[in-house]
Specification:
single chain, alpha/beta, Chitobiase, domain 2
Length: 707
């Protein structure tokens, strides 16, 4: 027997042994749900003869190395002869083919991959790994057929906003691997004070990562086709800089740490120093995002218009970026607002003719400064809730028609408390992807704001939706996407809607947010209100006027009854998923802590209602004891959440950290420890405890007090 014959005999014997073991592939073809979806697929109902466990040998005719790989594809090794290979791959550029594109063909006994570039090769193996995972999990062979794939949008970054907290370093590395497998190819990292600035050390938080540490993360990312570009807030959102005594002289308003004076040359010396350190920390990025949103300055009463001052600043910082080989990105809202053109953007019901008339009147305010708008800048049109408005498109088209580069920005998290809501904002993500594709824009950003600071694990469905619609286009419906997300995130057995617990959490969390707060007040503002406990936490049951409290809060009680039932469904689903040891146990642990906190509030509110409706003094005594137990229970609820969140997240700010003026009520900016997450609960419990203690109420001769 020849060496090759003996080799093939051995492979065949191994194949027979694999088919005979407990993991025997079935006759049923694997159902594959790729995420993101691919451009074209002709995967047949006929299986190949390739079992995932046996795919081990790869060959490149050009002598190329295998790309970085994940999962089952990591078992592949290069062989010297194509005849011995089960997979043949190579980079073969084609004229007019898209960057990052690839072709993947599965034949009866061989897989062939060709790619436009190294990024396309990397993504081809990611797609192959998903096919292999599905075949393995469903105990089948790989399906035969062909995939042709390319991104619909070239640049697909997500924002990492770390202004209020850092994750542990390991989490960033793991996150990059997850993003790469979703074909996300960029990050805009809002760095603020979480970089140890060499040139301006007073700006850095004591727990900031060094330039070298961020550079190591950046190197790791670019090896996975994820380029990290920094966002260093500039004209406004500058509290992390201007809160420090050393920099107060640069404030536009001496009493506010919000904005720089754009007419002070020292403003630019400081900002450019921060830029230089950030560019060193993130050397592989193409962009420098300079911010520039939500700010109007006076130049210390200079008499110049806010728009003129904005453009003075913008020209200086964009020139710096260009001189340092970066393309500047600028939030575009302030010029539009200062020209009176923002209202149509955020009114989806405004008729096109009304929008056009507003533009007809106010567009000259923009046009007279047209020559001062820098041409080397990307104008980022952000709209997180009404991307479909005619006014939003009108604004983008104004920039494009005047020769400016435009990029959109959608959101997976804006100002939702505890977790992203509205189904992870999937509708808006898809709408902005559609607008970007139809307008042939180069990129689309998914913002993930840390203003309310939910755990990052809770953003992952929104990130996956962004990957789906920015790479794969618009063909997959929202409902189908959710099923595919569960398939890939938790496992193929959790594809069906009976496991759709994330959507079921939306309304309970929305009710939780201000359950114990007076109407018209948001829990995020409590710390800035005088006498907040007494005036802005809800009233408590009267000891004499039974039933009046329940009547006062009847709407909340009715909503609570409905949402408590929804929450119970979520608890049961989570318990089932956790018992099954899914592929994302930690993600489920985080969701479970969201459920626990909401459930605690619901039970406390329900117990107050029970006291208000108690029919006897003995019943009142019992309920007061139960309320006392709930007060004592809170510490364990909090400790458990801190234990789970703290596995990946740095919860407390470093000793001596200086909070800024918190202009927009960002909860994580309101305490140096994790109190901010529970501010509503802490104030409500304080009021409840005082309420019952103050009465020293006697039931049947027995004084009842909370100790």
């Amino acid at each position: 027997m020849s060496r090759n014959s003996f080799y093939l005999f051995g492979v065949g014997l191994l194949f027979i042994l694999v088919l005979g073991c407990s993991e025997t592939p079935s006759n049923t073809q694997a159902t594959s749900y790729l995420l993101p979806s691919v451009a074209e697929s002709t995967l047949a109902k006929t299986d190949s003869k390739i079992a995932p466990i046996l795919l081990e040998r790869a060959f490149s005719s050009k002598g190329e190395d295998l790309p970085l790989r994940y999962g089952i594809t990591q078992q592949l090794q290069l062989v010297d002869q194509e005849a011995n290979a089960q997979l043949v791959f190579g980079v073969e550029p084609k004229e007019n083919a898209s960057p990052e594109s690839y072709s993947l063909t599965i034949e009866e006994n061989k897989i062939k991959i060709t790619a436009q570039d190294q990024a396309g090769l990397f993504y081809a193996f990611i797609t192959l790994n998903q096919l292999l995972e599905d075949a393995r999990d469903q105990k089948t062979l790989l399906p035969m057929g062909k995939i042709e794939d390319a991104p619909k949008i070239a640049f697909r970054p997500i924002q990492i906003d770390i202004k209020h907290h850092l994750e542990k370093k390991e989490y960033y590395y793991n996150l990059i691997d997850e993003l790469a497998q979703l074909k996300i190819n960029g990050m805009i990292l809002e760095i603020e004070d979480k970089l140890q600035y060499k040139r301006r050390p007073e700006v850095a938080s004591a727990d900031a990562l060094s330039i070298e540490e961020w550079k190591a993360i950046s190197d790791y990312a670019i090896a996975r086709n994820v380029s990290i570009s920094p966002l260093v807030q500039g004209l406004g959102h500058a509290s992390f800089i201007l809160k420090h005594d050393k920099n107060k002289h640069l404030r536009d308003d001496p009493e506010s740490d919000w904005a720089f004076n754009p007419l002070d040359p020292l403003t630019y010396e400081l900002q450019f120093d921060l830029y230089l350190d950030a560019l060193e920390a993130f050397p592989h990025g193409k962009y420098l995002h300079v911010g520039g949103d939500e700010v109007q300055t006076t130049g210390r009463g200079s008499g110049k218009s806010a728009l003129e001052l904005n453009l003075i600043w913008l020209n200086k910082v964009t020139t710096f970026a260009e001189e340092h080989n970066r393309t500047p990105i600028f939030w575009d809202d302030m010029p539009l607002k200062q020209a009176g053109l923002m209202n149509p953007i955020y009114d989806a019901k405004m008729k096109p003719e009304t929008v056009d008339s507003i533009w007809s009147v106010n567009e000259p305010q923009l046009n007279k400064f047209l020559e001062q708008f820098p041409k080397n800048c990307v104008y980022m049109r952000w709209n997180y809730h009404l991307a479909e408005s005619y006014g939003n498109g009108k604004a983008m088209d104004w920039f494009s028609s005047n020769g400016f580069q435009v990029m959109g920005a959608t959101a997976g998290q804006t100002r939702w408390t505890l977790m992203p809501q509205r189904e992870s904002n999937i509708d808006q993500i898809k709408i902005f992807a559609e607008q970007s594709i139809n307008r042939n824009y180069n990129g689309l950003l998914l913002t993930l704001w840390d203003d309310d600071s939910p755990h990052f694990e809770l953003y992952k469905r929104g990130i996956s939706a962004f990957a789906e619609y920015s790479w794969g286009g618009l063909n997959r419906s929202k409902d189908d996407f959710k099923k595919v997300y569960r398939h890939r995130m938790f496992g193929p057995e959790f594809y069906s809607d009976e496991y759709a617990f994330i959507d079921d959490l939306d309304k309970p969390v929305a009710l939780w947010t201000n359950l114990f707060v007076e109407e018209g007040v948001h829990r995020n503002s409590l710390v800035h209100r005088d006498n907040a406990v007494e005036e802005y936490i809800i009233d408590l049951p009267d000891f004499q006027e039974k039933g009046t409290w329940s009547a006062q809060y009847d709407d909340r009680l009715q909503a609570l009854q409905v949402q408590a039932a929804e929450l119970e469904k979520v608890k049961n689903t989570l318990a089932y998923l956790q018992a099954k040891n899914t592929k994302a146990d930690y993600n489920l642990d985080v969701y479970n802590e969201v459920v626990n906190l909401v459930d605690y509030n619901f039970r406390l509110f329900t117990k107050l209602n029970a006291f208000d409706n108690a029919q006897s003094s003995s019943e009142e005594n019992r309920i007061i004891g139960e309320i006392e137990n709930l007060i004592q229970e809170f510490s364990s609820v909090r400790n458990q959440m801190e234990d789970v969140y703290g596995q990946t997240r740095i919860l407390n700010k470093p000793e001596g950290y200086k909070l800024d003026q918190d202009h927009h009520n960002h909860p994580a900016n309101q305490s140096v420890n994790f109190d901010w997450q529970f501010m509503g609960e802490l104030m409500a419990l304080e009021k409840i405890e005082k309420h019952f203690k103050a009465k020293n109420y006697t039931f049947e001769g027995k004084k009842t007090e909370l100790e």
